[in-house]
Amino acid sequence: MSQTRSSKVVPIGERLRRRRPAAVGQEALRERLAELERELAAARAEREKEGLLVTLARVAQAGVHGLDWTSLGRLQRALYFAWHSEDADEFGWDLRFAETIEPVLQFLYTVWWRVEATGTEHIPSQGPGLIVANHSGVLPYDGLMVQLAVRQEHPARRMCRMLALDMFALLPVLAPLLAKSGSVRANPDNAERLLRRGELLGVFPEGVKGVGKYYRERYRLFGRGGFVRIALRTGSPMIPCAVVGAEEIHPVVAKADWLGRPFGLPYFPLTPTFPWLGPLGMVPLPTKWSIDFGEPISLEAYGPEDADDPILVNRISEEARQTIQRMVDGRLARRRSVWFG
Length: 341
What we know:
Elements: H1 12-19, H2 23-48, H3 52-62, H4 69-81, H5 95-112, E1 116-118, E2 129-133, H6 141-153, E3 160-164, H7 166-169, H8 174-180, E4 184-185, H9 188-196, E5 200-203, H10 207-211, H11 226-234, E6 238-244, E7 254-255, H12 257-260, E8 269-270, E9 290-293, H13 310-334
Parallel strand pairs: 1-9, 2-5, 2-6, 3-4, 3-5
Antiparallel strand pairs: 6-9, 7-8
Helix pairs in contact: 3-4, 5-6, 9-11, 11-13
C-alpha cells in the first residue's frame, strides 16, 4: 500500500527572498570584517615590534622546518632594530645606536686610555660653540673621546657634533659608524647649519696632515683657516682644545701610500704593529690621555663680512694654533710617562 506525501508549494519569489540576507545583517557582517582586519593589522604591527629575544624564541620554537623567508626577514629586522632606531636626523645621528656603542667608548675612555678632562667650564652651556683641537692617532679616536668628554664632564651634558674628514666619512664601515654616533662630514655648509641651530661643534683644522703625521712630528701642529671663516660667519666662540696621548696609540714610522691609493686613502700607515700583526695591529696602545679645554677665543668684535678678509682670518687662525700649541706643550712638560701620565 503506497503512501503519498503532501508537499507545500512555495512561490519562486518568496524562496529567493528567504535566501537573501537582510540589509541589517549585511551591514553587521561588514563591520565585523572591518574590525577583524583592524585587529589583524594591529597584531601584525605588534609582532613586528617584538624584541630580539622574543623573535629568537619564535624562530627556535618553529625549528628548522618552520623557517621561511618571512620569519628570516622578521629576525633580520629584529637584529637591526635591537641597536638602531627608526628616527635619525638629516646627518644620520641615531640616538639608540649611540647608546648601544657607548659602553665600548666608556671602556676606552675610563679604562683603556684613562682620559683626564679639564676646563670643560669654558664650553658654553647653551648656544653655538666651535671646539678647535689638534688631530692625531691615524683613526678618529680623538674625536670620539672629545665628544664623550664634553657629554660626561660638562655640567650641561652637551652633545658635541664632530666634523669628520672625507677619508673617514666615506669609508664603507667607518662612515656609518661615525654618522650614527653623531659625527658630520667636514663641510662648511654642514658646519654653518649646525652652528646656526645653536649646536656645539668640534673641528680638527690639521685635517689629514694631523692624523697621518709621522711619529717624529708628534705634537707639532699644522694650521688652516677654514674654521675661522665658519666661526666669523656664525658668530660662534672658538674653544681651543689640546689632546695629549693620542699621538702614541698608532705611532707612524713609515708610509706605503701606493697601497692606500687604490682604496681612496691619502696614505697607508706603517706602525710597529700594523700590518705585521694583522688585525691585532689595529688595536690602539693603552696610553694615558688628557683633554684640556682653554678659554674661548671671542670674535664679538668682528662680523660675518670679516670672513672674507684673508689677512684677518690667517691672523686669528695662527692665534688659535699658537694657543693650542702652548696648551699641548704645557701638558707634555707635566707628563712623566706616556703610559701613566
